[in-house]
From TrEMBL:
Coiled coil: none annotated. GO terms for molecular function: nucleotide binding. This is Gfo/Idh/MocA family oxidoreductase. Residues 5-114 form the Gfo/Idh/MocA-like oxidoreductase N-terminal domain.
Length: 308
C-alpha cells in the first residue's frame, strides 16, 4: 500500500514538537506540503495558506490542522471541499457548532474527520480505563496546574475569545476523564478566574458528576510555578487509582503499575491512517461539551492582570 500524502497547516510549536516527527516516522504517511504564514519545514514545499496549497498540490490526500482552534473551521471546510481527509488537533474547534458542521460536511463529502485527543493516548490511560471498568467510582479529583509562562510563552491567541485560556490544557484532563469513566459526565457548576486585561480564564474550578453519581472536582490553574501537576485521582470500592504526569504514570493504592512506552502522537497518526483505510470518522465531542458547559453556567471572577 502506498503512503498517504499528508500536509500540515499551522507550523507552530505542536507541529514541530510532535506532528512532523510522528508523520516522518510513520510508514503510512508522507509529509508532502505545509501551509503556514511564517513557519516552514526544510525540504518540504511550503505555502502561505491552505487554499494556495490545495491549488498547487492536487494529489494531497489528507491534511492535519495544527493552528489555534479559532482558525480551524475555515481551513477544515476548505480541506473537506477539496476531498481531503482531515485530522483536527485538540480542541477540534472553537465551538460545538463548528465541529458539528464539519462532521456533516465530511459525511456529505465522503472523507474522514478525526478529532484527535492526544492525552487519551498517553501510556497509562487505557490501563486505567481497564482497571476502573470493574470498580465502583466513589469520587474523582483532578489537579491540572502548570506555568503558562513556561508552556505558552507569547501565545496571544490563547487569551483571546475562542482561545480557551486555561481550558486549553484543562481540556486534556477532560479528554482523559471522559475516556476512563464509563457513561457521560455532567457539569454541575464552574468558577472561572479571568485576568482583568484578558478575555479568557487563567484558572477554573469545575464540579461535575459521573453517570453513576460520583462527585468529580477539577482545578485548572495556569499560575503554578515549581512542580507542575497533571494528575487525576479516582477513589473506588477497590482502592485509589492515580494517573499522574498527564496520563503517563499509574499507581494503585500507591503501588506503581507498569505501562507501555509513551507514543501519543505516533499512536494518533496510526489511528488516523487506520480510519482512512476503513473510511470511518472519529469525532467525540464530550471534552469540548464540558468546556462549553463551563462557559455557559460558570461564574466569572475578575483577577489580577496577567502580563507574559
Ligand atoms: P502555536 O505555537 O501558536 O502554533 C500555531 C501556529 O498556527 C502558529 O505558529 C501560526 O503559524 C498558525 N496560525 C494560523 N492561524 C493563526 C492564528 N489565528 N493565530 C495564531 N497562529 C495561527 O500553537 P501550538 O502550541 O502549536 O498550538 C496549536 C494547537 O495545538 C492548539 O489547539 C493547542 O491546543 C494544540 N496543542 C498544543 C500543544 C503544545 O504543547 N503547545 C500540545 C498539544 C496540542 P503561522 O504564523 O506560520 O501561520
Amino acid at each position: 500500500m502506498t503512503a498517504t500524502r499528508i500536509a500540515i497547516v499551522g507550523v507552530g510549536k505542536i507541529a514541530r514538537d510532535q506532528h512532523i516527527p510522528a508523520i516522518e516516522a510513520s510508514p503510512d504517511l508522507t509529509l508532502t506540503a505545509t501551509a503556514s504564514r511564517n513557519g516552514q519545514v526544510d525540504g518540504i514545499p511550503a505555502y502561505p495558506d491552505i487554499d494556495a496549497m490545495l491549488a498547487a498540490e492536487p494529489d494531497l490526500q489528507a491534511i492535519s490542522l495544527c493552528q489555534p482552534p479559532s482558525a480551524r473551521h475555515a481551513a477544515a471546510r476548505s480541506a473537506i471541499a477539496a476531498g481531503k481527509h482531515v485530522f483536527l488537533e485538540k480542541p477540534p474547534g472553537a465551538t460545538l457548532s463548528d465541529v458539528e458542521d464539519l462532521c456533516a460536511a465530511a459525511d456529505a463529502a465522503g472523507v474522514v474527520l478525526f478529532a484527535s485527543w492526544h492525552s487519551r493516548w498517553a501510556a497509562a490511560v487505557e490501563p486505567a480505563r481497564d482497571w476502573l471498568a470493574s470498580r465502583t467510582i466513589r469520587s474523582v479529583e483532578i489537579a491540572w496546574k502548570e506555568d503558562v509562562r513556561k508552556w505558552h510563552p507569547g501565545q496571544d491567541w490563547i487569551w483571546q475569545p475562542g482561545g480557551f485560556g486555561v481550558f486549553d490544557p484543562g481540556i486534556n484532563a477532560l479528554s482523559i476523564l471522559t475516556r476512563i469513566l464509563s457513561g457521560p459526565v455532567r457539569l454541575e457548576a464552574a468558577t472561572m478566574e479571568v485576568p482583568a486585561n484578558r478575555a479568557s480564564p487563567i484558572a477554573a474550578e469545575l464540579t461535575m458528576r459521573s453517570a453513576g453519581g460520583a462527585p468529580i472536582h477539577a482545578v485548572f490553574d495556569w499560575r503554578q510555578t515549581g512542580p507542575q501537576s497533571w494528575d487525576i485521582s479516582v477513589e473506588t470500592d477497590g482502592g485509589t487509582l492515580v494517573l499522574a504526569d498527564g496520563g503517563n504514570r499509574l499507581t494503585i493504592d500507591g503501588a506503581p503499575h507498569d505501562v507501555p512506552a509513551d507514543r501519543e502522537y505516533p499512536a494518533l497518526y496510526d489511528r488516523f491512517a487506520k480510519l482512512i483505510a476503513e473510511g470511518r470518522s472519529d469525532v467525540d465531542l464530550a471534552p469540548l461539551t464540558l468546556v462549553a458547559d463551563a462557559f455557559m453556567v460558570g461564574a466569572r471572577v475578575t483577577t489580577d492582570a496577567f502580563e507574559d
